[in-house]
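note to self: dont lose this again. the chain is below, predicted strucutre after it. 344 aa total, dont forget to put it in the shared folder this time
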Amino acid sequence: MSPPCGRGLLRSRPAGSRRTMEAGGNLGDESGGLRPASRGPAREAEPRRAAMGHPEIQLGGIETENHPWKIRLVEHPKRFESSHFRAAKATARKILHVMDDADLPYGPRPLEAKQGPTNSERWEMHHGGSLWVKGARGWLMYRARVGIEWSMQFCADPAKVDRLRQDAAELVDAFPLTLPALAELGYERAEDLLRTPIEDADAVEAWTDSLFNSCVPLSHGNHQGILPSVPGEHHYPWPVKGADFVRYDDFQLWVTLPDGTHGAVAPVDRRGSGDGHVRLAFVPEGSVAAPAVAEAQDRGLMAVLPANSDVAMQAFGQQVAPGRRTASGPLSPHAARGGRHVSG
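---
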């Protein structure tokens, strides 16, 4: 069990000792006494017009906070759904329909998708680098080095995108059942996509909306959700969000910080160690904790909260016995018997 420590935002030091680091206030103080960080003067950004033949965006109001910039709200141009994306989505839904629930890459099948491939619109296809292949036991999905989000195709260098194509082709070649199976599903463009060098914007668009980039199947929450409900991949860093799919069911990854912002935490030791300290893995930029987390990262340290903080109790609340005031100590009998990993 870890020794007791004072309240406040903590950093681990190379020698293993812990000392308090304030983050604009006592983040570890359960009273939540926080001081807002000061900001500089605001500067309005120049409005921009839509490119690539889309209709001109309509300017709206200006939203501003205590930041050195203002955000101009605009009407979103209607997104063009290419034939490449329609074909990729249709193929991905056919694949998902024949997969067992236990083999799905990111969590359970959406309720509406259980009725069949024609009713699977509740799957949201994320442009996250979806590399679908067929192995001896069925369909598998790997993730590319990077995924190209739809809007990011307009700044994508064809030569760099071609590197992604080459990576995908090498992976698919290692699974020789893939191309015949895709052709059987009606996705006959797969081989051309994999074999044709990407040299211009049209080829970048085709790759961006292809089955090998655009079809990471996610629920709405895991795709676009925002805390405090569900954290989506579009709004939270993948190295942290990815833990949602491997964490123990009874560990609360996403927590509310004392200043009202939402962040993510991780244990500092393995399950059952008795150490209830938690490491801040993610905090939003506007959080009072952000400067301390940034400094800890710059110095190769950890930003850690004490075991008796409200944040640690949120994280380990399902693992400790009722009435306990610290997250340090033995697992509750129920938690000691459990310990399943979450699947989504």
